């Protein structure tokens, strides 16, 4: 006699559970946060399984850290250097990768290219739940990809997908996308919190048991975060976000979580008629400056993952006709811009409180670190004074609230990258001054904001 499955309703915000659905969680006060969770039957003999257990039934035993064998994690390449960089060196068998991005960013195109190339040497399975097989085939033909080896499947049932995958035993499997997948014994609609969580958990368990590389395509919300429950990002091994504006041909692949590599690693691609093409030297693209030098422009070196990247920061300071002058930052934190302008006034003696200040990072790159503080302030001063900064000048450093210039990590590698691209002068924190004088670049080490302004 089969035991009937029960269900509970769990709050996505605080985790409180209820016997029936209600509009508001009475514990945390959140509205429409309850989702149905299936509760499996409890075996009557579960306690009997632990009687007399000596640790040898399944071969598991307790070990100390010193006894664990440190074998190198096996990997295989995706066929693209920039993709491998973000993954930490390639795909790890049995790992689960979640890739998200805005509609039209190129997620399906990048994965279709990757699987068509991998299918030449290993069994690969591409499962589409949003597009028809004809649409995927037309895209592959338009991109000129090899289509004779890749196996395709159009299915949205997770149980059916795992049953078919168990027969064909692929080494790499793509699910496009996790939001349209569903399990038969869950009553909620596809895309709901419970469906996404249970489907991802089922697929992850299959990937771990079979050693299959599982790549999940995820949707994003309007604020750019991955849609679905937060527990989805805890289940997977690697979370990647494909970013890029529709009016730009360049796409950035950023790693937000990686159990097998560096976090915040950045890969750059160019969207062409032949699909996504990797950009091996991103600094050369972001440094395509105008022939006629203009004020308010300076180049800085940011550190992304395991490599330096040269980008241009532009600032525009103009008289404000409003009672509350505007502060607009594109590609940077707007609150940090307001804080740095206050430091400029207090410790630099330059007042821009009655000016509109606009700051932009060229190329659509988002600066997440504080090493751009000094470059931002010097660009603002250049625009405010209408003085052109030298084209061969590089700047980086963190600015503190007392006007001191703080050091940033990997300063020597940043200077080496700047010298490789032909820059002759640099303004850097005093603690980042290189001991090696053979870099071929003149370094001005400054301790505070006033010294940096005097160095100009």
From TrEMBL:
A motif (RadA KNRFG motif) lies at residues 257-261. InterPro entries: AAA+_ATPase (IPR003593), DNA_repair_RadA (IPR004504), P-loop_NTPase (IPR027417), RecA_ATP-bd (IPR020588), Ribosomal_Su5_D2-typ_SF (IPR020568), Ribsml_uS5_D2-typ_fold_subgr (IPR014721), Rubredoxin_2 (IPR041166). CDD domains: RadA_SMS_N. The keyword Zinc-finger applies. ATP binds at residues 101-108. Coiled coil: none annotated. Pfam families: AAA_25, ChlI, Zn_ribbon_LapB. Residues 356-456 are annotated as: Lon-protease-like. Residues 72-220 form the RecA family profile domain. Keywords: ATP-binding, DNA damage, DNA repair, DNA-binding, Hydrolase, Metal-binding, Nucleotide-binding, Stress response, Zinc, Zinc-finger. DNA-dependent ATPase involved in processing of recombination intermediates, plays a role in repairing DNA breaks. Stimulates the branch migration of RecA-mediated strand transfer reactions, allowing the 3' invading strand to extend heteroduplex DNA faster. Binds ssDNA in the presence of ADP but not other nucleotides, has ATPase activity that is stimulated by ssDNA and various branched DNA structures, but inhibited by SSB. Does not have RecA's homology-searching function. Plays a role in repairing double-strand DNA breaks, probably involving stabilizing or processing branched DNA or blocked replication forks. The middle region has homology to RecA with ATPase motifs including the RadA KNRFG motif, while the C-terminus is homologous to Lon protease. Belongs to the RecA family. RadA subfamily. This is DNA repair protein RadA. It comes from Cellvibrio fontiphilus.
């Amino acid at each position: 006699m089969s035991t009937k499955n029960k269900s509970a309703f769990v709050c996505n915000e605080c985790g409180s559970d209820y016997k029936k659905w209600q509009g508001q969680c009475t514990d945390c006060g959140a509205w429409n946060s309850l989702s149905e969770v299936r509760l499996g039957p409890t075996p009557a003999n579960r306690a009997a399984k632990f009687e007399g257990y000596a640790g040898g039934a399944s071969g598991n035993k307790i070990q100390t850290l010193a006894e664990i064998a440190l074998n190198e994690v096996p990997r295989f390449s995706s066929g693209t250097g920039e993709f491998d960089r973000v993954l930490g060196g390639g795909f790890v068998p049995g790992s689960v990768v979640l890739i998200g991005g805005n509609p039209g960013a190129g997620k399906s195109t990048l994965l279709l290219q990757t699987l068509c190339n991998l299918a030449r040497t290993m069994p690969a399975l591409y499962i589409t739940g949003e597009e028809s097989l004809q649409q995927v085939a037309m895209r592959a033909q338009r991109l000129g990809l090899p289509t004779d080896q890749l196996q395709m499947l159009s299915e949205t049932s997770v149980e059916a997908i795992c049953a078919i995958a168990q027969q064909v035993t692929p080494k790499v499997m793509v699910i496009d996308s996790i939001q349209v997948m569903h399990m038969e014994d869950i009553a909620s609609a596809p895309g709901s919190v419970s469906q996404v969580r249970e489907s991802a958990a089922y697929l992850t368990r299959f990937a771990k048991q079979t050693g299959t590389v599982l790549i999940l395509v995820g949707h994003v919300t309007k604020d750019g975060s991955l849609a679905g429950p937060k527990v989805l990002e805890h289940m997977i091994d690697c979370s990647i976000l494909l970013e890029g504006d529709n009016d730009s041909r360049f796409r950035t692949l950023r790693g937000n979580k990686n159990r097998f590599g560096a976090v915040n690693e950045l890969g750059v691609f160019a969207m062409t008629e032949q699909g996504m093409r990797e950009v091996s030297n991103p600094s050369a693209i972001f440094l395509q400056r105008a022939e006629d030098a203009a004020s308010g422009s300076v180049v800085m070196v940011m550190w992304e993952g395991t490599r330096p990247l040269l980008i241009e920061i532009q600032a525009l300071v103009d008289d404000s006709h409003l009672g509350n002058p505007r502060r607009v930052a594109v590609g940077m934190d707007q609150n940090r811009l307001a804080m740095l302008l206050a430091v400029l006034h207090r410790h630099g003696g330059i007042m821009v409180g009655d000016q509109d200040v606009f700051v932009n990072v060229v190329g659509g790159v988002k600066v997440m670190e504080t090493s751009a503080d000094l470059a931002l302030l010097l660009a603002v001063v250049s625009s405010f004074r209408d003085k052109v900064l030298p084209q061969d000048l590089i700047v980086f450093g963190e600015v503190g609230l007392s006007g001191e210039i703080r050091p940033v990590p990997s300063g020597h590698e940043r200077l080496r990258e700047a010298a490789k691209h032909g820059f002759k002068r640099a303004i850097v924190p005093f603690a980042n001054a290189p001991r090696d004088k053979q870099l071929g670049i003149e370094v001005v080490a400054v301790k505070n904001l006033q010294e940096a302004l005097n160095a100009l």
